[in-house]
Structures
1.
Amino acid sequence: MLELWEVLRQFFWRYRKRSSSRKSTNIAVRAAAMADGSKGKSTKEQKYDRQLRLWGDHGQDALENAHVCVINATATGTELLKNLVLPGIGAFTIVDGHKASGEDVGNNFFLSIDSIGKSRAQAATELLQELNSDVSGNFVEETPDKLLDNDPEFFHRFSLVIGVQLEESTCLRLGAVLWNAGVPFLACRTYGLVGYMRLAVREHTVIESHPDNALEDLRLDQPFAELKNHVQSYNLDNMEKKHHSHTPWIIIVAKYLEKWYNEHNFQLPKNYKEKESFRELIRNGILQNENGVPEDEENFEEAIKNVNTALNPTKISRLVQEIFDGEECKNITSQTPAFWIMARAVKEFVESEGGGNLPVRGTIPDMIADSEKFINLQNVYREKAMQDALLVAKHVESLLQSVGKPPESITEPDIKLFCKNAAFLRVVHCRSLADEYSVESLNKDEITSCMDSPDCEMVLYLMLRSIDRFHQQHSRYPGVYNYQVEEDIGKLKLCVNSLLQEYGLNVNVKDDYIHEFCRYGASEPHTVASFLGGCAAQEAIKIITHQFVPFNNTFIYNAMSQTSATFQL
Amino acid sequence: MADGEEPEKKRRRIEELAEKMAVDSGHGDSTGDWDGRWNHVRKFLERSGPFTHPDFEPSTESLQFLLETCKILVIGAGGLGCELLKNLALSGFRNIHVVDMDTIDVSNLNRQFLFRAKDVGRPKADVAADFVNSRIPGCSVVPHFKKIQDFDETFYKQFHIIVCGLDSIVARRWMNGMLMSLLSFDDGVLDPSSIIPLIDGGTEGFKGNARVILPGMTACIDCTLELYPPQINFPMCTIASMPRLPEHCIEYVRILLWPKEEPFGDGTALDGDNPEHIQWVFHKAQERASEFSITGVTYRLTQGVVKRIIPAVASTNAVIAAACAMEVFKIASSAYIPLNNYLVFNDVDGLYTYTFEAERKENCPACSQIAQDLRFPPSAKLQEVLEYLTENASLQMKSPAITATLEGKNKTLYLQTVASIEQRTRPNLSKTLKELGLVDGQELAVADVTTPQTVLFKLRFTT
């Protein structure tokens, strides 16, 4: 046996050395690989390879079918567009009525010295288009206000509208139009060293939220019949060493849990002490050699290590329960989107066949085991997941029938995907901008409690609102020219106070922040714009692909301290 | 927009300006600037503020310093590097060097925005520098199509600040070690003028981090080695005899079958960029998988495992590079107190950042100036010392070469990187420390790819 490992190890080292001494890759080979797309993967697949590993081909399809509108091609606008054009968004349209100024070119990579005096929308579209020929770039040389005056329905056609550096009144008008049309709206703003984003989407559903550290769905506390039978097929007390030490830890825990139940009135080990003695129980099961010394059984070590998470009771998370309890789940009509029909079907499954549990996910983590034992166990979970999904599909079918829709309007793969992700479903409801800005419905509690720490990012939100107030009153932003800074500090302070007073906010905004915002003088430093552009593009991709979870609803970035916060306003 | 100038007047002024520039072939004045060019930057350099660094003095000279004097080195011209060059150039930095040993691959194009399909195969550093220099007038990015190890301290010494956008931990550690070696001490007191700040960024999928390292003063790369996730290697017995996952089948073909069958001729190494190679591995892995009833071997997965591909998107790189460039600007201008000292970013679920102060490790092998103790019994074999150097979480060396002074002579006890010396010194691995003639308190000098310096250890015999 040992010899075999030695041989393998040598192979291993031999290969490793070769690969590490490899010369930098042959350029000709790479170029050839690129030209010959038929071998292996298409050029497009190669180009997008690194992102397809994150959102899959279906995510990419969604992206390629999307059309986003970006208002104002300032640095923030072109940076976020760059991050959407590169991964291959279907189309973008820039709406911008400005001519590019010297100042605009100074902080914007997608304007050049030749753009000065020309339409900012056109110049930026041309330079952004260069990034990716798969993307269709369009521009409208018009201010958003003009479009809102003359043709507000212009904005209805987009998958998402992103407003950049908008004046408050424009932002609210546009926000109202999009809210009523059900078009997601993302407002972005760079103001000095502060970044701001606001998402306004009525309802956003996510099946694939891709959680980072998801708990496994093993049902050890409530084993289903097939799992019980499978565990029964093992007899740890009467096993050859080779098999004993290659029994998957899930089986080991299930076996010792049966023992534990018999001694503990069918109660799971709950607290630390009980879990410790359960671990001890497993430890005692490790085979011993003829001298009574425990053998090296890594699978048992794994079992002991996994006791804590394996014994987590199977339950439905609060977020998923909220989805089941939602209005959309209750009243199914012919207009109900597929997400909610499937959510209702899963809910019905939980209440009937599932016995209070979600459909089994059908995956298990890798663990020490020989191939056969692992695959057999994996198949027990997989088959159960398939059966559960089939039952959910039956519920879907009768729901569709009840509202007069054909059964094929929701496909089997869709249902399987939904069931597999049932524990991670997410629904994001944002508040409207109108609610945020109304004196009656402003989220005062959130603001007041955050402002208990006077340097919380909330103060930057209040400052941005005050800046807008200043602009309303003076038709300019404070401190744009050096000579204005000193005198504008007092004026801006009046705006802060009137804002706090109008909303009845009993909080203190430090004078330092008022001075700092006058210092900013409405500047849009490139690095802050680029940071925000990265964040905004990622949120746009979430909205478009319905994968990962968008923020809700206000994000503030403080570049001075490199901190950020998200508020629900 | 905000400057209150009447539109008509403004347009005329711009037209005049454009005309002037046409005459001067694109350069408004000696610095290639045009009216308003640095307005966004100047507000932070020429105005006082409540949150500035205590040393900050508003001045028009600061911009001249950035434009004319300040010299920045960017390591890596990939996802982060492209963004960094753009960010720095638009923040007023003009003297920038960039080092990258790679050529452009088609899979870079989804995020490395300075490259086009026609550039595939060309050196990243050259293409990136050309692009930035042509887009941003007056900017002078100097490219180096080289490895960082090709340069010595005289090269690195010339820079005010160094920014790293790398995907390799070994390269980061080497760079970190280089900056440590540049520090000078007067009676054990660090000479601040010998410090070159290092800004380091890293990304993986939707996660990233940015950090500021003041060598000799704040936590360095090696102080926080444990923060990097360990590389996942499947146990050999799993790969060889009990595969469970599709990945195990692919690794079987890559590690065992390829060298045995040599499908593309004697000694041809598996090239992850060669589609025929990947195709071969893919088919063989499928065969192996079906033998064990394993499902899920795909071409994409095969390539991912063979090349150890890390997923990457434009947006995360943009965020992290922007945070890094912001810190370069803060340090170069003193306009703000720099990040102290570590930022973590994740936008899988909402947008999450976490900023904290990573702490220096008292006995950090890279930055502490304290000779490390190696505690072994005299009966321990050299092999055990070697394993300790590679496996210890705070050392994680790759191919350490161990030398000692014995009877007044430098003697190489083990060296892996040169085949002939490896062969000659390999027998030492199975000898005990005592047999090798090492004594208690013996100094061992260890060289490794993770640092340009030799790390000194003191052997302490345990009983």
Note: Residues 196 and 556 of chain A are 5 Å apart (CA to CA).
2.
Amino acid sequence: MEPMACQWTDAPHSMGTTIMAVEYNGGVILGADSRTTTGVYVANRASDKITELTDNVYLCRSGSAADSQVVSDYVRYFLNQHTILLGRLATVKTASTLVKELSYQNKSFLETGLIVAGWDKYEGGSVYGIPLGGTLLRLPFATGGSGSSYLYGFLDQAWKSNMTQEEAEALVVKSISLAIARDGASGGVVRTVTINEEGVQRKFYAGDKLPLFHEEIAPRPTPIHAN
Amino acid sequence: MTKSNVMEVPPKGGFTFDLCRRNTMLQQQGAKLPKFRKTGTTIVGLIFKDGVILGADTRATEGEIVCDKNCEKIHYLAPNISCCGAGTAADTENVTDMVSSQLVLHRYATGRESRVVTALTMLKSHLFRYQGQVSAALVLGGVDVTGPHLHAVYPHGSTDTLPFATMGSGSLAAMSVFESRYKENLTKEEGMEIVSAAICAGIFNDLGSGSNVDLCIITKARKEYLRNYQQPNPRSYSRSKGYDFKIGHTAVLSTKITQLRQHVQVLEGDAMEEE
């Protein structure tokens, strides 16, 4: 066996991930962790998994980093042309259908779970989940990634319809923090994107600002190596 | 054997994966794949106050043997963009040369200085099309009109945009140096010091990396390529008398001289003219 064969640098770049999106009274909130792994090595501890498709529609990416980046680049390109032709902002339904087409028609080559969410004037806030095979599901809230396993029970109990923006945001941050606590492939910071009629707002919750749960120890700041 | 009536449609382009299946089958039957030249490697990049600093070691390996003690891993892409390459040496060399040519044509077409995101998109679409078979892991850095940029590109075609990045088998050693010493708005001297320390960490702690440190500092004004900036592995022994083998050192056992002129005959036509 070659001494230089390193599983962690040769493994494909994947986002273990926890991603989610919820509808609230007036819009949607998308949330994600920030860990990208190659095997067991954390290749990027501050990645941004919520990418913009149009001004009013964003996409949460999980699974293979390469596959999800390529799909989002293609959809952004198609939606750009569609917006010019249409003369209006694209609807969330159109964006999700495009993502679904790419995922479904190329299902044998792609390994990526996606969540499309945004706001348009016809439906208000909407969330669409597009898991591995290319199904398109409109849902009031959606989760994805390896960390989502730990959230099904929690969200069944904690999610309510017609939440305010503050409630929804607190729910998203709490959920991602819970998943980060239990899932090895999720970690880093929590990023949220709030989309409503007014526009888009990006928020960032550093690791030490996240709520702590059962048996978690508060992080202690490490001194920077003085030279 | 009957001839097939179906016309052979040439492949439209892209990689045909048929031979990959044959190779896996042969491997399972016991055949050994040839060892290709890999750059075991430690490559790094960081963004400092005025631009980007890229660093690389200089060891190239073929299996367990060091085949090149002083190879160049920092490749030219454009006057304002450079790229460090880890993985299979042939893949990194060829993919960077290819994108460099594409960028020249793009500059002619647009009439502008190349942007780092252009190089990034060209690299990632090529690597994704080949589904990871082109084993090139790159650290791409440069300064353009929109400012300094640093990206990590992985063999399957995914990219990360970061303030500091490391790749290759020595990436963990180098990352430990960056994580403890990096801060925003570093000066050029501080940046060079941290980059060399990171590469040295890879050189001394990773078997796949070694020899010397190369640096490349890119700012808005210019690009400085410091080849062999540090040489922490000098040849430890050299013979005091020098290496000189005078005639007589090697015994000559027999001599045979063959005149080639006898074997060449002009049969017809003119003998080749000598100008």
Note: The longest strand of chain B covers residues 136-144.
